[in-house]
Design a protein that fits this description.
single chain; about 260 residues; alpha/beta; 6-stranded parallel beta sheet; 5-stranded mixed beta sheet; 9 helices; about 35% helix; globular; binds nicotinamide-adenine-dinucleotide; binds N~5~-D-ornithyl-L-ornithine
Length: about 260
């Protein structure tokens, strides 16, 4: 699993502001508005405890600080514990946290201690990026292409199917693609006879996963995938409306889903 790097998290406030502005342009709602309509929840004085975790590859410089900045950006009361791991968890609860945010190399979770709800970053991220794609205001087409059907992509594809979209899918892993076709009823993308899409949801850890032959002018690409699915050259050539941010949108989705 790809780990975030301190570089991915540089200027997180600027990344969030830019993401908010493009999400507004594409959907007519800001990130908070998307979360509210998606989950039907709103913050209600929750206090968030962010616990650094040293397991596996250890602390990622800027990770906890970025979660702090993200939670503050979305208007939550939050703090980072001085201690890490189990001691940090104890400190968070003792200091009055109702929601715990913590991540190791495999799982990034939000756990609401008041109502017991728990969220995993991967499906939460997939669902919100898919929701943003589904709200592309520039098209009436119900066709959407999902590239990458892993732990983020599959739940996003399922969300789009559930919302009534005609979902085309592609994954280099044939088994995952076949599973998505049989369990969700998505249409496997025919690489031999490409079709142009106005809406894309991409969730892979690879660059250049969307070839030029699929792009249409002013299309929306909603992607949590790192690195970016298209080159800067293609983005400019097709005026692609790119929603891509490294941590905040997925974290907001987790938090609103556990309220
Ligand atoms: P995953 O490994 O579970 O799934 C990735 C899928 O992409 C795999 O099924 C793989 O076969 C497929 N794939 C790889 N190359 C491909 C290609 N060229 N064309 C089509 N499919 C291809 O990973 P994941 O947990 O779903 O994460 C996906 C990406 O999302 C990663 O880059 C991860 O770092 C990123 N991510 C970002 C955020 C965020 O907030 N921005 C949150 C979670 C994950
Ligand atoms: O970045 C990650 C993993 N890819 C899991 C997230 C799922 N998308 N984990 C962050 C690890 C943070 C570290 N343990 C810390 O600083 O607390």
């Amino acid at each position: 699993m790809a780990l975030l790097t301190p570089d991915d998290l540089r200027d997180i406030n600027k990344q969030l502001q830019e993401a908010d502005s493009i999400v507004r342009r594409v959907t007519g709602l800001d990130i908070k508005g998307i979360c509210k309509t998606l989950y039907g929840t709103s913050p209600n004085s929750e206090k968030i405890g962010i616990v650094p975790v040293t397991a596996g590859n250890g602390i990622i410089k800027n990770f906890s600080a970025s979660l702090h900045a993200i939670t503050q950006y979305f208007g939550f009361d939050s703090f980072v514990t001085d201690m890490s791991d189990v001691s940090g968890y104890y400190e968070a609860v003792q200091s009055g946290a109702n929601i715990i945010l913590m991540a190791d190399d495999h799982t990034f979770l939000a756990h609401n201690l008041k109502n017991g709800k728990i969220a995993n970053n991967q499906p939460s991220t997939g669902i919100i990026y898919a929701e943003i794609a589904s709200r592309n205001q520039k098209t009436d087409s119900k066709d959407v292409l999902v590239v990458g059907l892993g732990k983020v992509g599959f739940p996003g594809a399922a969300h789009l199917v559930h919302k009534g979209f005609r979902v085309y899918g592609y994954d280099t892993d044939r088994t995952l693609l076949e599973q998505a076709v049989s369990s969700l009823g998505i249409i496997p993308l025919d690489i031999e006879s490409p079709k142009r899409f106005s809406t894309f949801f991409e969730a892979t850890p690879c660059a250049n996963t969307i070839p030029e032959t699929l792009l249409s002018e002013n299309c929306v690409l909603s992607t949590p995938g790192i690195p970016c699915a298209i080159s800067e050259e293609l983005r400019l050539k097709y005026n692609v409306q790119l929603v891509m941010e490294h941590l905040g949108i997925g974290t907001a989705s987790m938090l609103y889903s556990v309220m």
